[in-house]
Amino acid sequence: MDEAWLAGVPEGASKDSGGVSPEFLAGYLPMLVDAATIGRAPKRAEIDAVRLQGRRAAESGVPVGRGVDLYLSAARRVWAELPAIVRQRDRNAVRAAAEAVLQVLDEAVAAFADGHAEAGRELIRKEESVRRDLVDDLLRGDAHLSELVERAEPFGLDLTRAHQVALAQPGQRLPSIAAATSALERVVLDRFGDRDVLVATKDGLVVVIALAEATGAPDTSMGLATTGSLGKTVHSELSRLRRGSPWRVAIGRAHPGAYGIARSYEEAREGLTMAARMHLDSPIVETRDLLTYRVLARDQPALNDLVYSVLHPLRQARGGAGPLVETLAAYFDCGCVATAAAARLHLSVRAVTYRLDRVRSLTGFDPLDPAHRYTLQTAVLGAKLLDWPERRIPDSAASS
């Protein structure tokens, strides 16, 4: 049979589907023609070829909906353009031809969509792998600069600008930390824009990289008046999830340049570690709030000596040093207001003042005396860092 009547089908179907290339009809049109003219059912190899067309369409960026429109339009046009000799068959023959065309259409569309989905999943896995490698290199800060800048560009990151990093740690084990990132990513992108923002996971933590200008965080040269709104945004959204709470979020300072992300990440990671060591209650940990602790922790021998020299005499108390150190910590945290400290400790004001007096008599440092207060408060911070008195201070500090 002369098939000149088919000449306009590919171009017409392409127009109907919004300009999808007719090349994706290869292998499909012959099946339609055979089904309409001789009632032939599609072969497995032919359906597999259509599945391959779906993969090619996905790799070319053609949406699956438009690809399906292409196939539907082609089937409609083939049926409408059938030569008169086919239409003049008896009713049963026409019905059989229509059923054969519908079978081809059904199987071909399903195969096309399946191939498109397979390719889409592969592209997503590949992108996730590339994204994961990029995040690892950004956070390590040891990759070649020009290569790093080039790899970051497709993800919308301009590494010449200042960025900051937030790390979110779940309070309970999650079956998949990645599940927490999908909802968070939508909110973060909506809040801070779709460029210079990256949400990922690393070592069981949610990692958010954001442009400092968008989050309101100043460059380190501008001081530490604020670290912006990134921490609050991340914590607020993660706290909505049914799993993982309570979340703790640590925010690094904003640093410029390709390696600024690695610096901010290290600050945020150190913030999580320090918050755990210090038994901090705050769900949002900012770098500026931990600078004093970092200075103290940097000189371990001096810190050991300070805690031992100032607080070790408290071990002579009847209940040991623990209750007195706890009272000092609450007293300082409450702005040196005994009534507030008593409420926090669930003690009477008289009990608190008695303990403070015991500290004075045992150590020689008076918590009520501003001249002594700084030494005591620094020693208490050091005790938290060292987990003292639960952990023993090395003998080297005792003998110094």
UniProtKB/TrEMBL annotation:
Chain ranges of the RsbT co-antagonist protein RsbRD N-terminal domain: 31-131
Segments forming domain PucR C-terminal helix-turn-helix: 324-380
Domain called CdaR GGDEF-like: residue spans: 141-273
Source organism superkingdom: Bacteria
InterPro entries, sorted: CdaR-like_regulators (IPR051448), CdaR_GGDEF (IPR041522), PucR_C-HTH_dom (IPR025736), PucR_C-HTH_sf (IPR042070), RsbRD_N_dom (IPR025751)
Family as reported in the entry's similarity comment: Belongs to the CdaR family.
Name the record gives this protein: Helix-turn-helix domain-containing protein
